[in-house]
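pipeline stage [seq->struct] | target=4-hydroxy-tetrahydrodipicolinate reductase | organism=Citricoccus muralis | residues=256
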Amino acid sequence: MTSPAETSSLRVALVGATGKMGRYAVNAVNGADDLELVATLSSRDSLDAIGDSGASHVLDLTVPSVSPEVVRYAVDHGLHVVVGTSGWSDERRAVLEAQLAEHPEVGVLIAPNFSIGSVLASEFAAKAARYFDSVEIIEMHHPNKVDAPSGTAVRTAGLIGAARAAAQLPASPDATEHDPDGSRGALVDGVRVHAVRLAGLEAHQEVLLGTPGQQLVLRHDAFDRSAYMPGVLLGLRTVASRPGLTYGLDGYLDLS
C-alpha cells in the first residue's frame, strides 16, 4: 500500500543524469524526503521514458542543443520544468512563452545559476551599479565549459544594465579606439564581460565597480557542484506554484 508520504512526493524525471551536474542532482533528489526520482535519462535517451515514468516534474541538466526539445516535450505533456542548461536566448524564451500560452497551468523555471549565493551576488551588483561610474564582469570557469560568456555573467550583466538604464546612467567610461583582438571582452547589455577558462577552476565571478577614489568588488566562488543543489531543490519545490515562465532563481526568492 502507498503511504501518505509517498503520495505527496513530487515525482521527478532527470534528463542529463549522466553529466557532472546530473550526478550531484541524483543524490540531492534522492536525499529529499518530499521528492521521488522516477526516471534518469542521458541527453541522448528517448524522452518517451519521461511519460512512462509518471513524472510530474522534469529537471533538465542537458546541453544547449538538447534543452529546448526536453522543455517542449515536458510542456506539451503538462509537466513542470526546472532548467539548469544555458543557451536560453531571448528568442528561445519567446518561443517557449508562446508554447506556455497554450498550457497556462504549467510552470517553467530557467535558472542561469542555481547557487543562491551567486544569485544574491548578482542582485547586490545590480543595486550597487547605480552608484558607480564603471562596472565590468570577470567570469572564471573550468576549461570544459562549452559556452562563453557564462549564463550567470549574461544574467548579471542584464540585471546591471537594466538598473543603470533605469537610473539613466551613461555607459562606463572607456577611451579604447583600437582593439582588433577583442581584448576588452564581450559587451553584454552595455557591460563588459571577460571570460577565463583555466584548469583548476570550477565557477567564479567578480563584478568590479569603480568610481574616482574607490572600488567595490563583489565575488562569488562555487568550489563544487554541491553549491547548486539547494537552488535545484528550491526550484523543484516551487515551480508548480508559479505557472508560466520564470527566468532566474531570483524570481523565487524574496529580494524586494
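stage status: PASS
auto-comment: Confidence is low (pLDDT under 50) at residues 1-6. DSSP finds eight helices and eleven strands in the chain.
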